[in-house]
Amino acid sequence: MPELFQAPLAFAALCGLTGLFIGSFLNVVIHRLPRMMEREWQAQAAEMRGEDPQPQDRFNLATPRSRCPHCGHLITALENIPVVSYVLLRGRCRHCGAGISRRYPVVELISAALSAYAGWHFGYGLATAGALLFIWTMIALTFIDLDTQLLPDNLTLPLLWAGLLFNIGGTYIELSEAVIGAMAGYLSLWSVYWLFKLATGKEGMGYGDFKLLGAIGAWLGWQMLPLTILLSSLVGAVVGVSLIVFARHGRNVPIPFGPYLAAAGIIALFWGPAITSAYLGGL
Questions:
Q1: 190 Cβ partners below 8 Å, 6+ apart?
Q2: What φ, ψ does residue 167 adopt, rounded to 5°?
Q3: Angle (CA) 207 132 130, round 5°
């Protein structure tokens, strides 16, 4: 094993640097994946109507190159260095001077910080690789849900299967606990959804939330589900009430639940067993 991987601080720094550049790619995923899905839906709708699909320019995570949405200026490699380019450009397009969203460096810094902590917390090994994949996917899902109130199957379902795959060898928990966690995570919110709908005639959450909690259960096991649901519900309730009281957020305007599930899942990944043990020890 290289000496770099044996030094905890150096390995954490390497994970953080990797997370910084992955964060730049996550910005692309957050921006483009919902638009790719919309294009696919439009093509499917046209096919169902018996219409010929309209020709469209190629659009995916790699094509076309990133550009300024205001003037169309193509972003060069030097203008695309995570965080550094934003600081040097003072948050503005070099060509037209239009402002660049702070979202980009925020996502990059969050990805870097969580990735570095994952490297420090788990050390060199399969657990860190899985934790990085889990964290990066959660970041993408969080911001996509905030923007569109969608949790794409393209991310939630591979995340669920990846959790089962990592736990085949017991990376985080036994495989049987992961399978039960996936089923219990999905069915618990599915049951809440239908109980709420039968009682009120309204939909309280989306199917993406079921799949996301199922994915968390696949990674962390059924034992972490109560903690995840409790943490996400508490934070969601506090944020929801704050938005209604201070930001005049309409009571009938839906609030995405995915970000709170994702945050609770990351907390459970790092500190779930410790929190659960501390709680049970205090009873």
A1: 210
A2: -90, 5
A3: 80
Asked whether the beta carbons of 157 and 166 are under 8 A apart, the reply is: no
Helix (H, G, I), strand (E, B) or coil at 26: helix
Please report, in tens digits, the pLDDT of each residue of the chain (283 residues total).
566 667 889 999 999 999 999 999 999 999 999 999 998 888 888 888 888 777 777 888 888 888 888 888 888 888 888 999 999 888 898 888 888 899 999 999 999 999 999 999 999 999 999 999 999 999 999 999 999 999 999 999 999 999 999 999 999 999 999 999 999 999 999 998 888 888 888 777 788 999 999 999 999 999 999 999 999 988 877 776 666 666 565 556 667 889 999 999 999 999 998 888 877 665 5
Q: 53 is written with which tokens?
A: 């699909």
Structure token digits, residue 109: 């810094």
CA–CA dist 254, 97 (Å, integer): 35
Structure token pair of residue 247:
């930001």
Q: List the one residue out of 118, 127, 122 whose CA is nearest residue 172.
A: 127
**Rounded-to-integer distance, Cα 228 and Cα 267, Å:** 8
Nearest to 188 by CA among 151, 158, 233: 233
User: Which two tokens mark 142?
Assistant: 């969080």
